[in-house]
Design a protein that fits this description.
The complex is a heterodimer of chains A (about 210) and B (about 550).
Chain A (H helix, E strand, L loop, with lengths): L1 E4 H14 L4 H16 L5 H14 L13 H10 L5 E7 L5 H11 L3 E5 L2 E6 L2 E5 L2 H4 L3 E9 L11 E2 L5 E4 L1 H11 L3 E2 L3 H6 L10
Antiparallel strand pairs in A: 1-8, 2-6, 3-4, 3-6, 4-5, 5-7
Chain B lengths: L18 H4 L2 H4 L9 H11 L3 E9 L5 E8 L4 E8 L18 E7 L4 H10 L12 E9 L1 H12 L6 H7 L1 E9 L9 H4 L10 H25 L9 H5 L2 E6 L4 H6 L1 H19 L6 H19 L6 H27 L4 H12 L2 H12 L3 H4 L22 H11 L16 E6 L5 E5 L14 H14 L6 H7 L4 H12 L16 H12 L2 E5 L5 E5 L15
Parallel strand pairs in B: 6-7
Antiparallel strand pairs in B: 1-2, 2-3, 3-4, 4-5, 5-6, 7-11, 8-9, 10-11
The chains are: A alpha+beta (about 210), B alpha+beta (about 550).
């Protein structure tokens, strides 16, 4: 496992998203989303590797492919851009990745948002979330029906909700790290004779 | 002469300079440090809070290699700089960030490192980026000797002499850093954890503390080496000579994307500085003490310019002109003061802005801020920002409204003609070989498909064109769903609309753009001086020259 800082996760993810063909702006959003999920202590990396892998194959939003699944990155940014507090979504891939965008809406509206799918209900606020239901469902590859709704003031907390811990670090499996780095590496430009000579200025030793 | 009895208003009667004036590359490239620069903020805080400095560990051998620990006790927490000195073959000594070995390496540590932690850092820090770090490690840095000055100082001190003052002034430092990493890089602590230390609140305070303590280490190491060479005859550096030694730094393109990626933060920095200028200019009657402080600052600036050397022709000319202008400024300011102290600072500013070069104008700004700590130092607390607060795109805006926003807030972009090769001659990219930002020639080199999003002007024009094809009443969120390629531009536009000093109003991919102009603004906010361009893409600077050492904090102004 690699013990990573949250800023590293944001940067690594943004670069990987760009390498997988997402636009620069969506890549920034994806980086922030990964950081938020890591801070919540969720196991964010495997789903991201799979999700970006799917984007990479399609080079477009997932909703146009034969699986007809909606990308949580497109659905999430769209909902956050509109500051939507209530909506229903169908057939979303890796629904965990909707949560950071719900958190953004919660921050803007100053009101927690509940995102539910299958037997799971997650209450999201700007810097954390509480999960009621099976935590393994959090990592589902797909959800058929998703309900996204404001938490009514004074509403009783879900019976068995567990606050995810607030983390300042994230442990990532080396394989996931390497997969994300490999995607990110596609944004790099290989050296050429000219770039070595002029790309950064003179290349001298500095024994003065 | 009439006396001011009312406290000076915090809301100045004179407006701040406009972003259109301030945020041009030519003027950014003439920026000078001010009392709001980050190293000055650090020194003021260290003095006000009576930080205690000790060196609990000095484990350096007669060969000059080993480690040392510098401990800083602040009211709320203890921090340590762990310094390592290691052998470096001269053929491997390079200022560039791409090096893989250095004379010395450093970690600013959260707390007091025990033997196991020092052992861990002793294997990691000399390897820099090639190693991994923990959340106890707040910054990571390295520095190489200025061989000509370091060897000379050791030689002179070991023989019982002080070093040649001309050489001391010419070089200005014993070592120069080639990177000071913060904010989570390679596993070190995230900024959120760093600023949990009240001592390190504000921009780049951990980095500035690191460099300040590195300065101590460089002097200690030179004195140690002199004693090791000749214990009977060696002498320490005279305080007056020591004070003229700062820490050098070599900075290149790696820093440039930061200014584009952090518009709200840059806005806060520049807005603070411009507000400070407006406050100083709004003073009705200049005080006698402030006048004396201005004169002293002007003399210090003249001394600085005399030792500001560079081989780069453009900067050489500009520094020479600045030297002459400071003489004119001195004469003109005295003339104005002799006539009246009413609106003196504004009078000096107006004269400077009409008669001096950009270097001269920006230096005048720094000089006008210098006497007015009580009036402006509070602005240092406004220079940090929660960048996440403006990250969310407002997708409820219509395309027509967004298009109007471009016309209202980013007018400067519209006349640029990106059909010409000159306007899009360059592209920014990350090099696979070195994982560092680079600047390429679009029409001569491969790789422009991997261009970084730094072509702010071109991208804004493209967005305007895209919006022109959309229906005006469509929501931006819908537009971005179909055109995610504009997403980064929309975000930045919405941010700079409310943070106008965060937008550099020049084309960053133009054939004649000078990257060092971007770097200089940031370096000036750090508190750097003696800017020494080594090409149009990287430069050397000095930090903390003439600043007090920790054992001198009690005396004098910071």
């Amino acid at each position: 496992m690699i013990d990573a800082s949250l800023n590293e996760i944001e940067a690594l993810t943004a670069k990987a998203a760009r390498g997988a063909g997402l636009s620069w702006g969506l890549s920034e959003d994806t980086g922030k989303a990964a950081r938020w999920l890591a801070a919540c202590g969720s196991d964010w990396a495997p789903g991201l590797v799979a999700l970006l892998g799917a984007h990479d194959q399609l080079r477009g939003p997932l909703d146009t492919n034969l699986h007809r699944q909606l990308s949580p990155l497109f659905a999430g940014t769209y909902s956050a851009d509109l500051c939507i507090s209530e909506t229903a979504l169908a057939n979303v891939a890796y629904p965990l990745w909707l949560l950071p965008f719900a958190a953004r809406v919660a921050a803007d509206r100053r009101n927690a948002v509940r995102v539910s799918w299958d037997g799971l209900s997650v209450v999201v606020w700007p810097v954390g979330c509480a999960v009621a239901g099976s935590q393994s469902d959090l990592l589902a590859a797909r959800a058929e029906h998703i309900v996204w709704a404001p938490v009514m003031p004074g509403a009783a907390p879900a019976g068995s909700a567990v606050d995810l811990p607030h983390c300042v670090r994230s442990a990532i499996r080396r394989a996931d790290w390497r997969a994300l780095e490999a995607l990110g590496a596609r944004t790099y430009v290989p050296a050429s004779v000219q770039s070595r000579a002029t790309g950064a200025g003179a290349g001298l030793t500095d024994n003065d | 002469m009439k006396r001011s009895i009312e406290p000076e208003p915090l809301v100045p009667s004179i407006a701040a300079r406009s972003p259109e004036t301030v945020m041009r590359l030519a003027r950014m490239g003439a920026a000078h440090p001010t009392r709001l620069s980050f190293l000055r903020t650090l020194l003021r805080r260290a003095k006000a809070e009576k930080w205690q400095f000790t060196r609990p560990n000095w484990n350096i051998g007669a060969d000059g290699f080993g480690h040392a620990v510098y401990r800083v006790d602040t009211p709320a927490s203890t921090l340590s700089l762990v310094a390592f000195s290691t052998y470096l073959a001269s053929e491997n000594r390079t200022d560039r960030v791409i090096a893989d070995a250095w004379d010395s390496s450093y970690v600013l540590y959260d707390g007091i490192p025990d033997a196991a932690e020092i052992e861990r850092l002793s294997t990691a820090a000399p390897r820099q980026e090639a190693a991994r770090y923990t959340q106890r490690d707040l910054t990571l840095s390295r520095a190489n000797k200025s061989v000509r000055l370091f060897d000379h100082v050791v030689e002179a001190l070991s023989a019982g002499r002080q070093p040649d003052p001309i050489l001391v002034d010419k070089v200005g430092y014993l070592m120069r850093t080639t990177a000071v990493y913060g904010n989570g890089k390679f596993g070190i602590a995230d900024r959120e954890q760093v600023i949990a230390h009240p001592a390190l609140r504000g921009p780049f305070q951990a980095e500035m503390l690191t460099v300040w303590l590195i300065r101590c280490f460089t002097v200690d190491l030179a004195e140690h080496s002199a004693r090791a060479k000749s214990p009977e005859t060696a002498v320490p550096l005279d305080r007056e000579v020591r004070q003229r030694l700062g820490v050098g730094n070599a900075t290149g393109l790696g820093m440039a994307p930061f200014l584009v990626k952090h518009p709200t933060l840059i806005h806060q920095w520049v807005a603070a500085r411009e507000t400070a200028l407006a406050r100083a200019r709004s003073i009705e009657v200049a005080g006698a003490n402030e006048w004396l402080a201005f004169c002293e600052a002007l003399q210090a600036a003249q001394r600085l310019v005399r030792v500001w050397t560079t081989d780069e022709p453009t900067q050489t000319t500009r520094t020479k002109v600045l030297s002459e202008e400071l003489t004119s400024l001195d004469a003109r300011a005295r003339q104005l003061e002799a006539t009246s102290r009413d609106r003196l600072w504004d009078g000096i500013w107006k004269w400077a802005s009409h008669n001096l070069s950009l270097e001269g104008q920006e230096m005048t700004l720094a000089l006008l801020l210098e006497p007015h700590g009580e009036l402006i130092d509070d602005l240092a607390d406004t220079m940090a920002v929660d960048e996440d607060a403006t990250f969310r795109i407002d997708g409820r805006m219509t395309c027509a409204e967004l298009s109007l926003l471009i016309e209202a807030k980013a007018q400067w972009v519209l006349p640029l003609d990106f059909a010409t090769r000159q306007a899009q001659s360059r592209f920014w990219y990350v090099s696979e070989e070195k994982l560092e930002p680079r600047l390429g020639e679009r029409f001569e080199e491969p790789g422009s498909e991997c261009e970084m999003p730094l072509a702010t002007a071109r991208d804004l024009q493209a967005l305007q064109t895209g919006l022109g094809k959309a229906r005006g009443e469509d929501l931006v969120a819908t537009f971005l769903l179909a055109h995610p390629e504009h997403r980064h531009t929309v975000r930045r536009l919405q941010q700079t609309a409310i943070c106008p000093y965060g937008d550099i109003r020049d084309n960053l991919i133009d054939a004649v753009m000078r990257p060092i102009d971007i770097l200089r603004l940031k370096l000036a906010f750090f508190g750097a001086n003696r800017f020494d361009p080594r090409s149009d893409r990287w430069l050397r600077i000095t930090l903390f020259r003439d600043a007090p050492f920790p054992d001198e904090l009690g005396a004098g102004a910071q």
